[in-house]
Amino acid sequence: MSPVVFWAQPTLVDPIEIFEGSLDDPNNEEIALHWDVANLTDDTLNLMVTRNIIQLVSPFNLPYDEGAPGAYDRFCWGPLCYPFGQFSSFSTAGYLVELHPNETDTTFIADYYPAGIAGVTAFEYCFHPVGDIPAGTCQQVLYCLDADNCALSVGESIINSSPIFPQPVTGLSSFPYQLNGATRAELTIHNAGGQLIEQKTLRSQQGVVFIDAASYASGVYILSLMIPTGERVTEQFLVR
Question: Is 201 left (phi over 0), alpha (psi -120 to 50) or beta?
Fold first, then answer.
């Protein structure tokens, strides 16, 4: 029998699962959600935060372009508030939050800007050691503005895809996709800082995108596939 492995994980204090509001309320032009992150373990934790996309309204301004239409977001963690659209905090030592046993950090804020766009956007915020999201603690949040139903969409997707495999990317990994009727899709890959690394148009109804670790520096990347109607699928992957 394999031994059971336990991780020293942070504890989220009063995390927020759902925000519901109206675009008519001027207080909702910027929605700032906050909760504390506590270390209730006997180990010292050095944490970063990663923001994963679950669902986006359309249009969504990502990668962020000042003046472009669409909702957008950012988060604050540790010593600074990160740029709009950033996927994770910096992984270098000076930007990690160090939590000693029984210590609590109060710096996390998730900012969401609806920009006049109604609907449901959902993110997952994970607080974790560098390069090891499963060893951390995650919280999913739904931002619902004038939404008929404050829940994730369960409608049939125009884009079908499979997770990037294998992960982490250490050699060659694949991302199979299928477009159910769409004529093309735009593929983009950004690094965790929001910098565009790769972009191309896919015109085949189905195919496989290959990711070669030799082409990327080590770190976290975000692959996005979007069709002309605005529907998008997003996958995060780690290159080592």
Answer: beta
